[in-house]
Amino acid sequence: MTVYAYVDGPLGEMLLVGEEYADGRTVLASLSLPGQKGAAVVREGWRHAPGAFEGIAAQLRSYFTGGLTRFDLTYADAGTDFQRRVWRAVDDIPYGATVTYGEIAARVGAPGAGVRAVGTAIGRNPLLVVRPCHRVIGADGALRGYAAGLERKERLLGLEGALVR
Questions:
Q1: Any idea which residues carry the catalytic annotation?
Q2: Name one GO molecular function term (predicted).
Q3: What pLDDT shows up at residue 119?
Q4: What is the mean pLDDT of residues 37-43?
Q5: Regarding the domain delimited by 81-160, which CATH topology (the fold level of the hierarchy) does it fall under?
Q6: pLDDT surpassing 90 at residue 112
Q7: DSSP-based three-state secondary structure for 90
């Protein structure tokens, strides 16, 4: 069953959506921020279940207060094969570090023209904050693209103490 909850945070009220299983597990499918491009929208038939996301909410609170540097959660493995490869590369970017779109393209075997495809895949990341696409920057060191806005990307990088080149 699809479940959802809202969690307050310094970037606004986050919407968490997931699948709840009979064994009590909840697998996170989406984390969106207010005003985000392509944000999830609560649908009829979904169940409001804040308790299903207590662990994730606690990790988010700890991250936003500087106590957590890597999320430990189960999330849905949606997306195309290419998107999943890009997202795994993004998952591997350490807290407080940044890499370029070109570096991600090279890591997934798509250098050169693949940079644009990498940017598209990153732009379709359904798990903002927990999958750290905010750590990917332009080749010139400038902040580029973030579905929830560049101001939020800058705030997340600032929270992590990441030096933007």
A1: 133
A2: methylated-DNA-[protein]-cysteine S-methyltransferase activity
A3: 94
A4: 91
A5: Arc Repressor Mutant, subunit A (1.10.10)
A6: no
A7: helix
